[in-house]
């Protein structure tokens, strides 16, 4: 801790912040400015913005469910199968996953609009 760390704080004014000592006396030298403490706590910035990031990830998951299963249904209707896969497409499961994906997409979209 420097010498001036305990001697100065910020005081807000309309023009420019002014440095004052804890006893209310103004600082006479510029050297105390680098050690002054702000009188207000600045709002902490959320670097990753977790709430919005989570909503975006859920939106991406929902869209991926809808598009992936929709593509599988379209390809099955055309008669195209993935290489090395045997058996038929479970259409009921694909439709169910599309509905779940739509629900997740709408939920995440509304959550993003509410943020």
Description:
The chain is mainly alpha-helical. The protein folds into 2 domains: 1-44, no CATH class; 50-114. It has 2 helices and 2 strands. It has helices at residues 50-78, 91-114, and strands at residues 8-11, 18-21. A two-stranded antiparallel sheet has the order 1-2. Helix 1 (50-78) runs antiparallel to helix 2. The two termini are 40 Å apart.
Q: What is the element layout, followed by pairings?
A:
Elements (H helix, E strand, L loop, with lengths): L7 E4 L6 E4 L28 H29 L12 H24 L1
Please tally the β strands and state the result: 2
- Structural class from helices and strands? mainly alpha
For the biggest sheet, the summary is:
2 strands, antiparallel
Determine the mean pLDDT.
78
The level of helicity is: 40-55%
General form: rod-shaped
- Total domain count: 2
Give the termini separation: 40 Å
Rg result = 30 Å
* Percentage of residues in strands: 5-15%
The gist of it:
The chain is mainly α and 115 residues long. It is built from two helices and two strands, in the order ββαα.
